[in-house]
Amino acid sequence: MFDDYNRDSKEKLTNEVKEEKSTKKILLIIIVSIILVLIATLIPIYFIYHTNDELNFLIVSDVHEADDKLDKLKDRMSNKKFDYVLFLGDFIKYDKNRNITDDEKLNIIKELIKKFEEIAPVLYVGGNHDAINLFDENFNLDTDSDKTQNLHKNIIKIKNDLYIAGIGGSIPIINGTNYKKGEIPFSSINTNDVIISGFPYDDSSDYEASDKEFQKDLNYTLDKIKDNKIFIILISHIGPIYSYTSIQKINDTCPMGYLGSKKLFDTFMNNDQIFLNIHGHVHPSRGKFNFYENKTVLNPGALTDSNYATMKIYKHDGKYDIKSSLEDLF
Predict the structure, then answer these.
(1) Claim to verify: residue 219 and residue 76 sit in the same structural domain
(2) What is the DSSP secondary-structure string of 230-262?
(3) Mean pLDDT on 214-233
(4) 102: Cβ–Cβ under 8 A, 6 or more apart, which residues?
(5) b/e per residue, 144-175, with b = 16+ CB within 10 A?
(6) What pLDDT, on a 0 to 100 scale, did the predictor assign at position 49?
(7) How crowded is residue 5: how many other Cβ atoms within 10 Å of its Cβ?
(8) Quick one: which of 171, 240, 236 has its CA closest to 199?
(9) What is the pLDDT of residues 38-61, one digit of tens each?
(10) Do 64 and 141 lie in a common domain?
(11) What is the sign of the dihedral through the CA atoms of 227, 228, 233 and 237?
(12) What is the domain range of residue 264?
């Protein structure tokens, strides 16, 4: 009798053990299957969004010969991965009492740019304090890398559906006044009130004439892109006039100095291919400004003031999204 009881108990225990093992096996199969499905789903997504279509940029403007800050930035960025370094002009320090030739300027600019060629290909445009040579579309600095390129009036294809177009220089700065509540913003701009001339777009301190010359070169540059189904990043030294990134107080008699271009604004807003304009020139008005969801302006600030920016762009839902970060050296 006890033998029968023990035998039944043993068989019952054995069956329970088998059932438990079977349940664990089924759970393990389910867990492994879920993990495999997740891996099969997430890995392609990761590579689509983070490898194939993701680009990383280091953006620097208005260096003004601040070698110490450029060296500090290079050290900080040396272990990071970038696809391109963008220099937005004004490599040279302004001093009205300084006697410096264009050849001397070019040597200074070349040495500043060479510092970053080990990090990534360098694309640059000239600013209003730089050598006139930089405004020749066929001129390139003789640096250590053949990937370094002067983008003034030039374009570069960086992906099958993405170009960077460039234009340097500045037009005159005009005086404006703060508009009052209820007024049409910027309606008080007087384009006849030129307070600072531009370079090389400066027609006897005539803002409108200078801006037309700038537009002529801008259109010439964009016309080099024949494909109307691609996206364009425009890098420039000056920005669009109606962005706060192009406005600053000059002095007490000029509460709002407009340092941007009307023609650049018009082109930017009317060209559906240009989704991003990156510019410098206006030191204190750094930031990211959106006119609309698909029209972004980015001013990284001046490196001479310890400011720079990093940016990541990636393809999402058939268009490029932007993630930018304004950075400081200190």
Answers:
(1) yes
(2) SEEEEEESS-BTTSGGGEE--BTTBSEEE-SBH
(3) 96
(4) 131, 132, 133
(5) eeeebbbbbbbbbebbeebbbbbbbbbbbbbb
(6) 45
(7) 9
(8) 171
(9) 776 665 555 444 445 799 999 999
(10) yes
(11) positive
(12) 58-328
